[in-house]
Structure formats: structure tokens, C-alpha cells
Write a structure and sequence with these properties.
Elements (H helix, E strand, L loop, with lengths): L1 H45 L7 E6 L4 E4 L3 E9 L9 E3 L3 E2 L7 E11 L12 E13 L8 E7 L2 E2 L9 E5 L4 E5 L4 E9 L4 E8 L8 H10 L4 E5 L2 E5 L5 E7 L2
Parallel strand pairs: 5-7
Antiparallel strand pairs: 1-3, 1-6, 2-3, 3-4, 6-7, 8-9, 8-10, 8-16, 10-11, 11-12, 12-13, 14-15, 15-16
Length: about 250
């Protein structure tokens, strides 16, 4: 008799256990599906979808002096998904609808529409550029380089100012040029390449005055030819060689 009573109870407990496991499995499946759907949606939002005549443009944080009909300032741009340190070219025409703010690097989608030859004004572009979408707008910290810097040390050694003038370096990112003094002679040159970490100078020309003590000046000029990278720390600018060895430490003047 007891065995007969226990049999329905056992079957009832087994049914409840089966229902519990089934519900748990369905819950896990539902959660997994939701997470998967969310991931797919995020990927879809981040993906860049281009229509006909559309291109991905990068726009540099500074305009550059250029010559079109007359002297003017042009946007520096690159095309494509990857941003290359030395890939900037000048765009002589405006991008309709694009509100440019200096100091930011942009990634945008631009529609390029060809204009019929008979409708192109003299000395104007045969392509009309129109903003489709701003994908990214990031502050460019390298603009902090655009200043006058006074030398504090060379190769880790504090410079001796008992003899001569303190060397200075002026960086003009707008013109991509450098100016200054090595403590004896004035110099000027160009910036060959620049990005968030690296900076390489082009050929540097200087005056040829002879001073009583040329030791600091000679070290300065040798090191300037080896500058490959930089870092900014507060009001200090560190210039390093290709191995990361510190060549100079400058302090911001103004």
C-alpha cells in the first residue's frame, strides 16, 4: 500500500524537476539570444556604410597655407579608413555642410559629385563636396607643441648658461616649420612628419657665427638631426631618438 502511494509522489517530483530544468534552459537560451542580438546591433551601428560617390575622409586639426585663386588656407585631408602620419594632401574646395573647428581631427563621410564641365566656374574644382556624416571628432593633443620652448637639458645634463644664450625652439605647426637658436646661431627648418608620438625634422639651415663656447651649440645641432619622437609632460617637452633615448628637455616659455 505504501509503495502504491509513493509511486505517484515520485512521478510528480520528477515532472516538477523536468519542468524546472526546461524553464532554466529556455531562460539561458533567451539571454544568449538577446546578448547576441545586442552585439549584432552594436556592430551594425559602428560599421561605415558608403553609398555611391561617398568616401571616408580624415581632416587634420590644422589648416595649411595654400595658393588657389590667391593666398588661402586649405583643409588637410586623407581618404580611406586608415590614418597615415604622412598621408595628408590639400583640399582646395570647401566641404558643404562641414563645420570645421581647429584643434580636432575628424573622420567624416563625404559625397563627391562631379560637375558638368560647362557649369564649372573658372579656376574652380570640377567636384562638389558635401558632408554626409561626422563619424569621429577627436581633440589633437599634438597642438600643444605649437609654442616656444627653452632648453633645460641635453642628453640628461642640465645646460651651463655661464657662457652664451639659452637655446630655444619655436614650433609652428601651421607652417610646419621650426625656428630658434642653438645658443650661438639662429636656425630654421621644416617638420618632415608629425603624429601623436613621432616628430621628424627636415633639413635645418643656420647662421655660421663663431662664439666663445660652442660645446652646447654643437651638441644641440647633432641631436636635432636625430629627433624621432616626443612626449609632453606638463610644461615640459621631451625629444627622443629612434631608440627612445632622451635627447632634449625643453620648458614652455609662454
Amino acid at each position: 500500500m505504501l509503495a502504491l502511494l509513493n509511486k505517484p509522489m515520485k512521478e510528480s517530483m520528477m515532472e516538477k524537476r523536468f519542468i524546472f530544468i526546461l524553464c532554466l534552459s529556455l531562460s539561458v537560451f533567451a539571454c544568449s539570444k538577446t546578448d547576441h542580438d545586442n552585439d549584432a546591433e552594436t556592430t551594425k551601428i559602428e560599421a561605415v556604410s558608403l553609398q555611391n560617390n561617398e568616401q571616408v575622409y580624415w581632416v587634420n586639426s590644422l589648416k595649411s597655407e595654400c595658393t588657389g585663386v590667391g593666398s588661402m588656407e586649405c583643409l588637410q585631408i586623407q581618404k580611406g579608413d586608415e590614418l597615415k602620419p604622412n598621408g595628408w594632401t590639400l583640399l582646395y574646395s570647401p566641404i558643404e555642410g562641414f563645420e570645421y573647428e581647429q584643434g580636432y581631427v575628424y573622420k567624416i563621410i563625404v559625397n563627391e559629385q562631379a560637375i558638368a564641365a560647362e557649369h564649372v566656374p573658372a579656376d574652380a574644382s570640377s567636384i562638389k563636396y558635401r558632408l554626409v556624416k561626422v563619424i569621429q571628432k577627436n581633440r589633437d593633443d599634438s597642438l600643444r607643441l605649437n609654442d616656444i620652448w627653452a632648453l633645460e637639458s641635453i642628453n640628461g645634463e642640465t645646460i651651463d648658461l655661464d657662457n652664451g644664450e639659452r637655446p630655444r625652439l619655436e614650433i609652428n605647426l601651421h607652417k610646419k616649420q621650426i625656428f630658434g637658436t642653438d645658443g650661438c646661431n639662429n636656425f630654421s627648418g621644416g617638420i618632415k612628419s608629425l603624429d601623436q608620438k613621432s616628430m621628424i625634422f627636415g633639413a635645418i639651415a643656420s647662421t655660421r657665427k663663431a662664439c666663445m663656447n660652442m660645446e652646447t651649440s654643437n651638441k644641440f645641432n647633432r641631436n636635432m638631426a636625430n629627433v624621432q619622437s616626443y612626449s609632453l609632460e606638463g610644461l615640459k617637452l621631451h625629444l627622443n631618438d629612434i631608440q627612445g633615448n632622451e635627447l632634449f628637455v625643453f620648458r614652455k616659455v609662454d
